[in-house]
Specification:
Elements lengths: L2 H14 L3 E8 L7 E3 L5 E2 L5 H14 L7 E4 L16 E4 H10 L3 H11 L1 H10 L24 E2 L1 H12 L6 H12 L16 E9 L2 E9 L4 E9 L5 H38 L1
Antiparallel strand pairs: 1-2, 1-9, 3-6, 4-5, 7-8, 8-9
Helix pairs in contact: 1-8, 2-4, 2-5, 3-4, 6-7
Length: 279
C-alpha cells in the first residue's frame, strides 16, 4: 500500500465514523507527518487528562518538591467509588505507585490525588510551559460524569503528540524523567483499540480513553527500523455502547493499516540492506 492509497482509506474511515474524529501520525525518524486530520480540534480529554497531570508530577520532581519514593496519604474522601486498586480504603502510596496506577491501570483515584495536591492552576501552568497550549484541566476525571456539571477537561491530538514526542526525544524534561514516563506507557494494560488486530509481539507505549462520549488512543510504536506516533480521537455526544464499540474498532482498523504500512517500509529497508551487502 502506498501513501496515497493509505490516505484515501483513512479518509473513508473518518467520514463513515460517528461523531467527530481527529487523527495524526508522525514518523519520528524522518520528522514527517504522513497524515493528519483536524489535529488541533479541541475535544473532551477523557483519560488523556492524565497526561498533563503526569507532566505536572514529573515537573514537581524536577523542581525537587517531590520524589518517586515519597509516600502520600490517600484518604477515603478522595477514593473514587469505581476504583479497584484503592478499594481497600485509606492508605499511603508512593508517588511511583500512584503514577503507575494512573497511567498503567487507568485509575481515576490516583489522578484525583495529584489534582488535590497540585491544584488545577499548577497543572494548567505546566501545560502552557511545556507547549500543550490547547489542553486545559478544569475538574477531576470522575467528576465529568456528573450531570449538569459545566466543567470539562479538553485537549487536542496535536498537544498529545507534543507530549509524547517530548518524552521520546528527552526534550520536555530531563532524560531520566522522560525515560521513566516512557516506561509507564509501555506498561499500559488496555488493548481495546490500537493492538486489537495486531497479532505480532509489538513494542508500544500508549494511553487509552474509553468513557462516556470519548474514545481516544495515542502512543508510540517502536518497530525495528521505524518509530512512529499515532493518535486517533473520537468524540461522540450521542454515544451508545454499540457506537462506543464501533469507535474502538475504528481505532483498531486505522492502527492496523498504519502498522502494516510501516511493516512494508521496513521490508523495503531490509531488502535494500541485503542487496547492498550482496554487492
Amino acid at each position: 500500500m502506498n501513501h496515497k492509497e493509505l490516505t484515501a482509506i483513512i479518509m473513508k474511515e473518518i467520514h463513515s465514523a460517528h461523531g467527530i474524529v481527529s487523527v495524526i501520525f508522525k514518523d519520528f525518524d524522518t520528522g514527517r507527518i504522513p497524515f493528519q486530520f483536524a489535529p488541533d480540534y479541541s475535544m473532551p480529554a477523557g483519560d488523556m487528562v492524565k497526561i498533563p497531570i503526569l507532566l505536572a508530577a514529573l515537573n514537581r520532581i524536577q523542581e525537587g518538591d517531590l520524589s518517586l519514593d515519597e509516600c502520600l496519604l490517600v484518604p477515603n474522601l478522595w477514593i473514587n467509588r469505581n476504583s479497584v486498586a484503592f478499594e481497600r480504603g485509606q492508605m499511603s502510596y508512593s508517588v511511583d505507585e500512584l503514577l503507575s496506577w494512573m497511567i498503567v491501570a487507568d485509575e481515576d483515584t490516583a489522578a484525583d490525588v495529584f489534582i488535590e495536591i497540585f491544584g488545577l492552576k499548577y497543572i494548567n501552568d505546566c501545560c502552557r510551559r511545556f507547549g500543550l497550549f490547547n489542553t486545559h484541566v478544569e475538574c477531576r476525571p470522575g467528576s465529568e460524569r456528573i450531570e449538569d456539571d459545566p466543567r470539562h477537561n479538553i485537549t487536542t491530538a496535536q498537544d498529545i503528540l507534543t507530549f509524547f514526542e517530548g518524552i521520546y526525544r528527552n526534550t520536555i524534561l530531563p532524560r531520566p524523567l522522560c525515560e521513566y514516563a516512557g516506561r509507564l506507557f509501555l506498561r499500559h494494560r488496555l488493548n481495546s483499540g490500537f493492538t486489537r488486530y495486531i497479532c505480532d509481539d509489538i513494542y508500544s507505549g500508549r494511553l487509552v480513553s474509553d468513557r462516556d462520549c470519548v474514545s481516544h488512543e495515542a502512543g508510540v510504536f517502536y518497530l525495528r527500523y521505524v518509530d512512529y506516533f499515532l493518535a486517533v480521537f473520537n468524540s461522540d455526544p450521542d454515544s451508545t455502547p454499540q457506537r462506543q464499540s464501533d469507535s474502538q474498532r475504528l481505532r483498531a482498523r486505522l492502527s492496523d493499516m498504519i502498522y502494516n504500512f510501516y511493516l512494508e517500509r521496513e521490508d523495503a529497508i531490509l531488502s535494500h540492506s541485503n542487496n547492498s551487502n550482496i554487492r
